[in-house]
Amino acid sequence: MNVILHEYLAILIFILVAIVLSIVLFGLSYLFSTASHTQDAEKVSAYECGFNPFEDARNQFDVRFYIVAILFIIFDLEVTFLVPWSICLREVGDFGFWSIIAFLGVLTLGFIYEWRRGALDWS
């Protein structure tokens, strides 16, 4: 039991140092920040989405913002599979090559489907 505790002691110390350091840095940035903590017209104005930030949360909104965001995340994560594949392309052989070609085919079909359904249109 002592050996297990000794092995995990470094991790515990690392977590404690990270917590203390983050609290100290947050406190220092709050104390020494030059920005005003009061709200002005620029801070409460509508930003990229076009909605006022301090209204009732039950207002109707356009769901296309979330659809495009979800589609971006899906396609972005799928493209990240190409990085390890491209690094070890010579080791994967023919099976690995044709597997990624099939994967890219499914990815392309999904993109065409979303395009044809109009999920990428803003009008």
Give me some keywords for this one.
4 helices; 67% helix; single chain; 123 residues; mainly alpha; flat; 2 domains; Methane Monooxygenase Hydroxylase, Chain G, domain 1
Tell me the layout of helices and strands.
Layout (H helix, E strand, L loop, with lengths): L1 H31 L31 H16 L2 H6 L1 H29 L6
Give a description of the structure:
- This protein has 2 domains: 1-31; 63-123, NADH:ubiquinone/plastoquinone oxidoreductase, chain 3 (Methane Monooxygenase Hydroxylase, Chain G, domain 1, Up-down Bundle), CATH 1.20.58.1610.
- By secondary structure, it is mainly α.
- Helices cover 67% and strands 0% of the residues.
- The N and C termini lie far apart (65 Å).
Compact overview of the structure:
The protein has 123 residues and is mostly helical.
